Amino acid sequence: MWTPVAELLGPRAVALDLPGHGAQSPLRTPTSLADFAADVERRLPDGPIHLVGFSLGALVAQHIASRAPERVATLTCVSSVCRRTPDERAAVLARLASARTDFGATVERSLERWYSGSGVGAATVAETRRVLEANDVESFGHAYEIFATGDQQVSAALGAITAPTLAITGELDPGSTPDMTRRLAEAIPAARTRTVAGVRHMLPVEAPSTLVDELEALIGGRPTSPHPQASRRSTP
Question: Tell me, what's a Pfam family for it (predicted)?
């Protein structure tokens, strides 16, 4: 997922597997967002870093930034959920239940939600399908439970984030919606939002150049070009 962005950023980019993902051991028991964040924090490079998280990873990044501000120079939350409404919470819990009972259907619905109508090619969709289908279903369920409940677990700590923050999502993301991105920016001091037109959930795959431009601007402390769907919130 991070390959297109990492190729543009070069060797300074370090992509870490979340617990239960990639080369990390499968999850065999229920866990918490705090445990996820502690695991990732132990594996972060030394020194203040420019921390970027996507989807579930964005919740992990928020937890790290709120609890260990000295480790985070800037924070970027890509396609992040935030403070789900009761209806939004019910919908994601229904998807969690389905993932545990009919994983094949979950794969198909995920591909539909992430890529339907996007400009992503068939090869990328096929590779995403391959990765999804290779999941350890039990481990996937434990990780998805963190995604389904993590916004509640980190909500109260968002105001403690001191790093300059970018909250960015796709205009057409059906789960991590532009409205959630606005909620995130309202909760985090000195946060800025960006909504990328025509993009769904997999923003690092669909619009890597746009994401890297925004990262470079944040890291360099530069304002970005005016954008009709961008908004800015300053520290009071």
Answer: Abhydrolase_6
Q: How much is the pTM?
A: 0.92
pLDDT tens for 87-142 read 999 999 999 999 999 999 999 999 999 999 888 999 999 999 999 999 999 999 99
Element (H or E) spanning 191, and its range?
Answer: strand 191-196
Beta bridge partners, 49, equal 72
Distance (Å, whole) CA 96 – CA 98? 5
- Separation between Cα atoms, residue 169 and residue 179, nearest integer Å: 10
Token match 């350890």: residue?
A: 136
Show the domain range for 47: 3-232
Looking at the 3D structure of the chain, how many domains does it have?
1
Burial 35-68 (b: 16+ CB within 10 A, else e): ebbbbbbeeeeeeebbbbbbbbbbbbbbbbbbbe
Hey, what are 217's tokens?
């601007």
